[in-house]
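Example record

Each entry pairs one chain with its bound ligand, zinc ion.
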Amino acid sequence: MLNLMISALIGLFLIAACQTVQQTGRSQFIVVSEAQERQLGEDAYKETLGKQPISGRSDWQAQLRRVGQRIAAVADKPDYKWEFNVLQGKEVNAFALPGGKVAFWEGIMPIAQDDNGVAVVMGHEVAHALARHGAERMSQAMGAQAIGQVVSVGVGKVNPAMREDALKAFGAGATVGFLLPWGRTQESEADRIGLTLMAKAGYDPAAAVAFWERMSKVAGDKPPEFLSTHPSDTTRINQIKEWIPEARANFRGK
Ligand SMILES: [Zn+2]
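Structure tokens for the complex follow.
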């Protein structure tokens, strides 16, 4: 009887665990609720800001907020509490966490170059959060056995023992340990959704081609952190070129 009940629960659980990426229709296996994800995002952000001083470049801070607010306005996430900060440091890195917490390191700003370039990175990173890639990666890494451990703690809360792994899964930067590279599927998906987001926000998605070309030039012999987690190659740039017309169909001029 107990076994039957457990089987039934696991069955129910697996149905609940099968999700779909709204923007692309791709199925994904996710065992973390959106509330738990937001909580993890907020924790990871607090941890990062506790260790990394904020940049004194007020022009960059203003630029990040200006672009970020336009992307946020088309992201359709009323429950996100958006926050944008440029952090001190030469790292070529950026992230957006579930819950709307965004950080760019100073090192990526000159490569982004202008508002369009910032919108490319912003669109791409926000897309990772919207498509729940961190939760997906975490769910795959933990496997079914860990499900109970995370979920039993309740909505919006995460078992402290799982927290560190969870933060890593969200790619919250060098400050919380090593970074797992995003998978190719997730990268392509973030590119595609990101292009549409930037177009909806009134930026020209063609800026993505120039941005990724600049990124591949700065790579040199020591690839920046952003490139070790976000693979950059000609396949990606060609794919982006193919998606530009689709993204431009969503363009809303400002
Ligand atoms: Zn990415």
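The chain has one domain: 25-248.
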